[in-house]
Specification:
Rossmann fold, 3-stranded parallel sheet, binds adenosine-5'-triphosphate, binds magnesium ion
Length: 348
């Protein structure tokens, strides 16, 4: 769609015909090339075949970021802009803000009764979250964050959830909750499947095995040309290589990992690797090629971003109308849930 197009407001829940995908991001900051490789590229492809719901998970920020809440509004817009800039089409995808669908919190409450404390404590990512956020005692809310994720997915009756391998355990919990609910109260929920799209981890510019937002070693989708050039020219390569005529190591060298992911000329990349291994090409030449490749890759992304940045009202409208649609779905789900649980004694 173009920035000039207006987004229609959908107020009633449309009939579900295609399989539904629930995907999303926490609004923690700008997305980077690692996100593109790990999730966004696939997300853009999936929007063609599936009814995609894209959640901006601001409630989840409360589990670890209580001291950074003032950044969330900005981050919500950035994360939506990042998604639109890589080609997510708001006419195909329902982009919505979690806190504008408060039915999620109600469903989370019901689900929290179906999960034992010891089961929640066994989620392997909890320790990681605590370590990353420097938390020694998890709050009651943090312990329940995979239960909140189950509420996100099942609120819109998602069938498929694309996640990294690290999140597979959360989808397993969602499946348990859906089955348990259906057993206890009747068939309300689909039992969703995890979709593991890619195991490729894009390394950091510093040679770390993973580029990460909080590691300061990533190239952001929103970086300008000069920043990209600076980051690439300063990239870690093969520390043992002193002269261009020394044989170089391609494995573990992030410049080559980036070329593999972003350079469409596969044969030329193979040739460059051979020459690098044989000491027949310098680091500077390889990096200059990467700068060119990334500029070409980022040009249409920057163009789309600029279009949406010029029209902040449109961005707000996309989030608002997507949230209206997601809320309509969630209202229907909660209606089914209360009826199944016999909580509809006042006809609510
Ligand atoms: P932080 O440093 O704050 O943890 P992050 O950059 O790791 O941020 P997350 O929000 O933790 O970003 O990542 C969300 C998802 O994005 C991950 O589950 C993974 O699928 C994907 N992802 C993030 N970084 C990379 C990367 N370097 N390579 C491939 N996929 C990535
Ligand atoms: Mg991370």
């Amino acid at each position: 769609m173009t920035a000039e197009t207006t987004v229609p407001t959908v107020s009633s829940a449309p009939k579900k015909t295609r399989k539904r995908i629930l995907t999303g991001d926490r609004p923690t900051g700008r997305l980077h090339l690692g996100h593109y490789v790990g999730t966004l590229e696939n997300r853009v492809k999936l929007q063609e075949a599936y009814d995609t719901f894209l959640l901006v998970a601001d409630y989840h920020m409360l589990t670890t970021r209580l001291d950074h809440l003032d950044e969330i509004g900005r981050n919500v817009r950035d994360v939506v802009l990042d998604n639109l800039s890589v080609g997510i089409d708001p006419e195909k995808v329902t982009i919505y803000l979690q806190s504008l669908v408060p039915q999620t919190a109600e469903l989370h409450l019901y689900f929290s009764m179906l999960v034992s404390v010891s089961r929640a404590q066994r989620i392997p990512t909890l320790k990681e979250q605590m370590r990353d956020a420097h938390i020694t005692q998890p709050s009651y809310g943090l312990l329940g964050y995979p239960v909140l994720q189950a509420a996100d997915i099942l609120c819109v009756k998602g069938d498929l959830v694309p996640v990294g391998r690290d999140q597979e355990s959360h989808i397993e919990l969602t499946r348990e909750i859906a089955r348990r609910f259906n057993e206890l109260f009747g068939p309300v929920f689909p039992v969703p499947d995890a979709l593991i799209p890619s195991d490729t981890l894009l390394p950091g510019t510093d040679g770390n095995t993973k580029a990460g937002k909080s590691l300061g070693n990533a190239i952001d989708l929103a970086d300008d040309s000069e920043t990209v050039r600076r980051k690439v020219m300063g990239m870690y390569t093969d520390p043992a290589r002193i002269r261009a005529t020394d044989p170089g190591k391609v494995e573990g060298n992030p410049v080559f990992a980036y070329l593999e992911s972003f350079d469409p000329e596969k044969a030329e990349v193979e040739d460059l690797k051979e020459r690098y291994r044989g000491g027949r090409v310098g680091d500077v030449e390889v990096k200059k090629r990467l700068v060119t490749v990334l500029e070409r890759f980022l040009a249409p992304i920057r163009e789309r971003r600029a279009r949406f940045e010029r029209d902040p009202k449109l961005l707000d409208e996309i989030i608002r109308s997507g949230s209206d649609r997601a809320r309509a779905e969630a209202q229907q789900t909660l209606h089914d849930v209360r009826r199944a649980m016999k909580l509809d004694y006042f006809g609510l």
